[in-house]
Amino acid sequence: MPELPEVETTKASLDPLLGQAVSGVQIHHHKLRYPIPDDLGSLVGFVLQSVERRAKYLLLHFYHQPDNRRKVLLIHLGMSGSLQQHTHHELRKHDHLVLEFGDVWLHYHDPRRFGMILWVENDDYIDTPDTHERFLTHLGPEPLSDAFDDGYLHRVIFKNFKNKAIAKPIKSLIMEQSVVVGVGNIYAAESLFLSRIHPATPANHLDANQLATLTQHIKAILARAIKQGGSTLRDFTVGSGKTGYFQQTLLVYGRDGQPCTECGTVLENQKIAGRASVYCPHCQPLMP
Known about the structure:
Blueprint: H1 4-13, E1 24-27, E2 47-54, E3 57-64, E4 69-76, E5 82-86, E6 95-101, E7 104-109, E8 116-122, H2 128-135, H3 152-157, H4 170-174, H5 185-195, H6 208-227, E9 268-272, E10 275-279
Antiparallel strand pairs: 1-6, 2-3, 3-4, 4-8, 5-7, 6-7, 9-10
Helix pairs in contact: 1-6, 5-6
């Protein structure tokens, strides 16, 4: 599944289209997690003004110069979605939507169809409060923002009296989008390994220093993954089909049964909240 670094990389890949007008819209398959709106053809003549990322959502802001109308699309790449630009107009089997920007065609490709493309704002009609409420309002802070500081996780876990502090596994907590956005399974596993924290450790068993260390590693891991173009797992690609290569540096994710790069101990895999969680039993001992 594309995670925050992959979505941020996709966002950056759209920069060449900024300031360009939509010259055509082709909907080839409406069926995604939610049906693609029938009226996307109304984007013709609108200029792509900016692209924003919020968590793993992309918001494409369009405007129409003559009358200053606005339209905003919310795009989620789901499990296998990608946005790719092509100058040859060849459609593939799982191309659901094509936005034409002159000679450049932007394809939304999604073999597993778990993604979505919805209006967030459209001056032609108002349905935005429901869309915002369902997908954006509940989200926690961005992990690379100042709001996600060294004391943030400690405040979240111990916001009530200590006997009511959050006791769920720390890996589950940092993967909750309402707590902090964009820390998917890959980056949670890698950050916990570098922090020397067992993924099943109850959150309220960690002290302020450990949580600050984990925060710093989450920030560093995500920043490095963005710089390296994200992780290429299964069929995720961006731009014109290029792939990221952060996966070549993974220390624990997907390496269960292999030796730890730090101590040589065989890495183990434990299911936590239904997710595979690879860790080193020597470097990440479970706290009592």
